[in-house]
Recover the amino acids of this structure.
């Protein structure tokens, strides 16, 4: 005998529809603002940044320094060793992360006061990170973490995930929920997609392998930021065909790379100690796919935590990210950007890439190789370095593989490692290289067709 399908009240239906609709509009509704397209959440983040911009440098310094000092003290003196309080544990990342935090905090102090070696606080190294990157991230972390439950906790993930589950499962070996992660970052920010996936993993929706594959395959750079990247190389007139090429390369990467090591070798296990959501996954006989998706969404909304707990969890997640990524970004970013700005090391590292670019008949292969290899350190470095290259085809390819790479150490890679899903620096670098090797010929072929 078939199980009787559960009936839902109007209030329960509205509990799914209203928050999900608000969330979809905030994160995914394209709006035209002056001469560019954006989404409401980006406008909200920009407005918050404008309001607090006079205080942002001081706030950034406080966020990086004070928690880092507390973390080092707690770690060195082994304070509260058996504590289960998550507020205490946020300051107990372990010895290695504590050292990284304090080194990053020291770096930020040197940059803020412009003391010490110039290679640390130069406007093209630490100055870029402190003055341009750090202020944007703080508002992004807190606004997105607090509002993300509108996408994740009231049934939208289950609704879209059920509709797309078969497609994503066959094509990418991933749950349909990954479509929401992709759209959230595609229309707003890469970090947002990674944060969303982290929250879903910690909520028991993804295994480590699924979360790692989604982060490294679907947390794409937003449309708006992609336009900024292309503008750096003075090719914004080619945006539509160029972005189509980037999407094509991204789909090919998503089809291939999750099936290869190192992603294939990450354990297919859920986060330890987390209770998986108790959502009915069985489609009833005679029930349409849309009806099944709608029912799963209502069940999820019905079991949603109180708003106060969701906000509390969001603030906790944002705080954890901020006090970890801020100092880590400074130490990693400054070291990487300084190597590019002050040494020839990138010339040597990029040597293996030169013959590949020559095989693809890309002009100015030496300069292009240096630009492309700097992308693992920071997203904007390849287009900053590549902007002086004369060949339009080469600049087209550099911008394309840069946007498609997803992973860069100065920000997103740190968030991925913080998620503790089996992604370390070496694995991220291998994935970055795999994405580069797949995207390079695709972007070159498309560039030759378009330009």
């Amino acid at each position: 005998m078939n199980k009787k399908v559960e009936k839902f009240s109007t209030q329960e239906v509205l509990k799914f529809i209203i928050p999900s609709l608000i969330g979809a509009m905030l994160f995914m509704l394209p709006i035209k603002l002056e001469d560019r397209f954006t989404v409401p959440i980006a406008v909200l983040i920009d407005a918050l940044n404008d309001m607090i911009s006079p205080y942002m440098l001081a706030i950034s310094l406080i966020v990086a320094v004070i928690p880092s000092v507390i973390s080092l003290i707690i770690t060195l003196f082994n304070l509260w060793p058996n504590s289960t309080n998550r507020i205490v544990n946020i300051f107990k990342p372990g010895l290695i992360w504590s050292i990284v935090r304090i080194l990053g905090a020291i770096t930020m102090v040197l940059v803020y006061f412009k003391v010490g070696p110039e290679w640390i606080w130069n406007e093209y190294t630490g100055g870029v990170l402190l003055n341009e990157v750090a202020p944007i991230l703080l508002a992004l972390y807190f606004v997105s973490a607090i509002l993300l439950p509108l996408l994740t906790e009231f049934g939208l993930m289950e609704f879209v995930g059920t509709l797309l589950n078969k497609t994503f499962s066959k094509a990418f070996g991933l749950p349909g929920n990954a479509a929401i992660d992709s759209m959230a970052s595609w229309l707003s920010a890469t970090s947002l997609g990674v944060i969303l996936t982290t929250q879903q993993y910690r909520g028991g929706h993804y295994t480590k392998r699924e979360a790692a594959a989604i982060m490294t395959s679907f947390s794409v750079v937003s449309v708006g930021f992609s336009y900024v990247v292309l503008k750096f190389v003075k090719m914004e007139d080619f945006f539509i065909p160029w972005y189509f090429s980037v999407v094509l390369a991204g789909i090919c990467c998503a089809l291939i790379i999750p099936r290869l090591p190192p992603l294939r070798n990450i354990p297919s296990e859920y986060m330890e100690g987390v209770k998986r959501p108790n959502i009915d996954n069985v489609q009833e006989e005679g029930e349409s796919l849309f009806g099944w998706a709608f029912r799963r969404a209502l069940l999820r909304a019905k079991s949603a935590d109180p708003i106060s707990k969701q906000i509390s969890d969001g603030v906790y997640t944002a705080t954890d990210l901020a006090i970890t990524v801020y100092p880590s970004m400074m130490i990693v970013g400054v070291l990487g950007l300084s190597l590019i700005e002050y040494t020839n090391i990138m010339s040597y590292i990029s040597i293996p890439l030169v013959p590949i670019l020559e095989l693809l008949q890309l002009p100015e292969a030496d300069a292009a190789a240096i630009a492309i290899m700097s992308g693992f350190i920071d997203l904007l470095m390849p287009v900053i370095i590549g902007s002086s290259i004369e060949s339009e085809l080469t600049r087209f390819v550099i911008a394309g593989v840069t946007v498609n790479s997803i992973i860069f150490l100065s920000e997103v890679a740190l968030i991925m490692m913080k998620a503790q899903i089996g992604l370390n620096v070496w694995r991220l670098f291998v994935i970055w290289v795999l994405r580069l090797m797949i995207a390079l010929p695709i972007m070159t072929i498309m560039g030759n067709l378009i330009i």
